[in-house]
C-alpha cells in the first residue's frame, strides 16, 4: 500500500530543517521567486535555517499549511506548495505552488496539485479551490487549464513589481469538476 501523499512523480511531505539550502537556492532565482510571490530582501543562511526549523514544527491552522514537494525516485526536494485563505463557511480555499527552476516541465507541479486537491476536496470537504496566476506566466496558466481549472476573471493592474503593475488571472475548480477528471479512489 502506498501513502496518500505519494503520486506518480512526487511525494508531499512536511518541511524539514535541512531543506533550508533548497529554499535558499529557490530564492536566488529572481524570476521564479517573483512568479510565486515577490522578490524579498536577501536572507542569511541562519535566516533560512530558522525559517525551515519553524516550519518543521508548525501545526496546520485552519487547513492552512506548507508542504515540501519531493521527487519520488531521488528523494530530492523540488518545490513547495501551500494552502491559505481557507473559508470553511463557503468551502473555499486558495493554494500556491513553486517548483525549483531546474525541475520545471517534468510533471512535478501537476502531480503535487492533484495530491493536494484530492486531500482538500476528498478529506477536508472543501467545495472549491482558487488560484491566482500572473497573466504573463503562460506555463502556470497552461498547467492550471490542463488540470481542469476555469479562468474566472482577471484583476487588472493588481500586483506591482518590476516597475509596473501586472494583471492577476483568477482560476477556480470545484470538487465535482476535480472528481470528473481525477476520480477519488475506491475503498
From TrEMBL:
Residues 10-176 form the N-acetyltransferase domain. One of its GO terms (molecular function) is protein-N-terminal-alanine acetyltransferase activity. GO terms for cellular component: cytoplasm. It comes from the Bacteria. This is N-acetyltransferase. It comes from Kitasatospora indigofera. The lineage of its organism: Bacteria, Bacillati, Actinomycetota, Actinomycetes, Kitasatosporales.
